[in-house]
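Section 3.1 - Work completed
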Amino acid sequence: MSQQGGSFSAQTKEELLHTVPAHDGCIRAEMAAVIQACGSLVLTQRGLHLELISDHPALVRRMFGYCKKMTGQSAQLLVRQNKRLNRRNSYILRLIGRETVLGLLSQLGIWEDGMVQGTPRGLERTCCRRSYIRGLFLCCGSVTNPEKAYHLEWTLKEESLCQDLLALLEKEEISAHAVEFLEGVKEKMLMWPISKKAMAWRRCWR
């Protein structure tokens, strides 16, 4: 599960958030991953809009910049205060407008036949594939300090997304496996622990 604060996971994510995508294809791949992992389509009286929710403000700001670049429109940025003890605030990016939202999803290669698809098109390039893996990690990944105990994982809600990630990691020659578990009473989630040679994970997002 993702950790923030001063943890090694948090430090790793801060480092990754300063990664400059090689080209627009890498931007599309990273953004597609973020939308699939922590985004949702919401239908209201105002129409269709896209919401991204994260407890990492820098990630939301990064996606705000990507949205502006790809759609020419500014998304809304909101903060939701969590009143539970020791819970971080949630940061929300909201892109409004059916035409804008579906146009963006189409550009990202994850909208087809009226629904959000799995792995986006265009991940044949190594840099784009690694950008997609990086986006998933920024949303729902965690890693321990390899100098202490090596462990890297992604916590994902969709089995299809998990299978896609396994296939992408295999292309990176990183061995992984799936572990299914229950969180609370209702929510069923999936987790991918990885044990490999120390620092091998760095190939995933460079």
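Second construct:
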Amino acid sequence: MGTIERKAREKAQRAAAILDAAETVFFAKGFENSTMDDVAAQAELSKGCVYNYFKNKNELCIGIVERGVQLAYHMIKAAVENCDGGTPELFQAAAEGFLTFSLQHPKYYCALQSYRHHRCSCGVDSSYLNLVIEGNSKVTKIFADIIAQGQANGTVRQDVEPKEFAAAIWGDFDGTLPGFQLNSEKASGSYRRIVGLLVDGLKVH
């Protein structure tokens, strides 16, 4: 491994360690009650070193959101790939994948809910923000592809525009599914009923 590659790896490892520290601090104390000093102390680094990797607390939070959206994407993708049904079942599987993510990883789920609050403080040049946008697009594409597949086999209405509907379902973390407050068993039941209504609205009757 050359010097450039080694330095790039060390930089990535340091950034990941800082994010690990931020997760520990933010998840324990809450974002508003945490400081960059807290994160630096947890990471056993100087505050100046932390600022070399992250602009501010908001970008740290966006870095955590990026971890969450990647995890959500892979869980939704796996749920779809493991489903043998048609379009309605695939849509429900994708939605169930997100529900499972929210229940198994509540801290990351809450981080996703905070995305819109933090993104404006990062700047368009933030690599972490751009990774979140990329991951978000991948999730949206899963839903769009399911709808397009259903239209191709005649099970989904032709007047539905796949990308528009997928954006309404997922959106910029403010669509029907990620916007649902999944914080109880009762909420999970309501979520599944809403998903059922959405699926029924897509079907050719």
